[in-house]
Amino acid sequence: MLRAIIYPIAVAVAVASQITSATAASADWDRTVLPRPSQPFQGVANRTLEGSKASFTEPVKAPPGAPNILLVLIDDAGFGNPSTFGGPVATPTLDKLAAEGLRYNRFYVTALCSPTRAALLSDRNHHAVGFGSISELTGGWPGYSTHWPTSAASIAQILQANGYNTAAIGKWHLTPDAQQGPAGPFDRWPNALGFDYFWGFLGGETSQFDPVLAENNSIIGVPKEKNFYFNDAMVERSIAWIRDQKAQARDKPFFLYFSTGASHAPHQVPKEWSDKLQREVPPRLGQVA
Fold first, then answer.
1. Is position 267 annotated as part of the catalytic site?
2. Which of 126, 127, 147, 173 is catalytic?
3. Is residue 140 part of a domain?
4. The pairing of beta strand 197-201 with beta strand 20-21
5. pTM of the entire structure?
């Protein structure tokens, strides 16, 4: 990920005092046009270095004050389940986040994995991006192809083109079932839909203890770590990715799509969690009833 360009020292020293930055042009760029059009050369190119002024193309930068964005999707959780919205399941961390921010309660859920993800990441009706059903059920009809059209940009592509680092960690479920192997094609894998980095699984469900994982455009197989648990590993992978981004570019914002495989089947949790819930769930359900 780290990129370095080494210029000839003599030339760099010779023109250092004459460099014209393209930053001003970037600031005036119309961000409704994506990707950013090629910028015209703003320097002066004479036959020799005498009187010439270099103008280096700057990478796209996010607007000043652009926030980091963490988008968390809990699979098959149900809107009425968490205590954050009055449900019976204790979710203290979500409660804390909600208490410090805003709660939105009118997101349209399609009641299926792939369609909801397609609507969330595209800001369009799920049929408009080919996901009238899940990616395993490719259909030969408009709205059911499971082939995300190139005419529809994802939120990750929009943010990426505006100077964000982007990553998807966890469950994907937006690649046609027959295209999830090592031969691709990869144009509907996460990298091609605007995510600089992907780590997780491509299908609709997998084991939480020994999942078959993919990283970017490669199938990396089942983890070898002892006591591996997918949701914990997602957190560790996310923290590592954010640290890497900030180590190189402290002020560059990121967009992290954190999409768990839980609480979709298979319902697998470490023993200490199941023991805890075995003690807690019956009384809480009794209260709801």
1. no
2. 173
3. yes
4. unpaired
5. 0.84
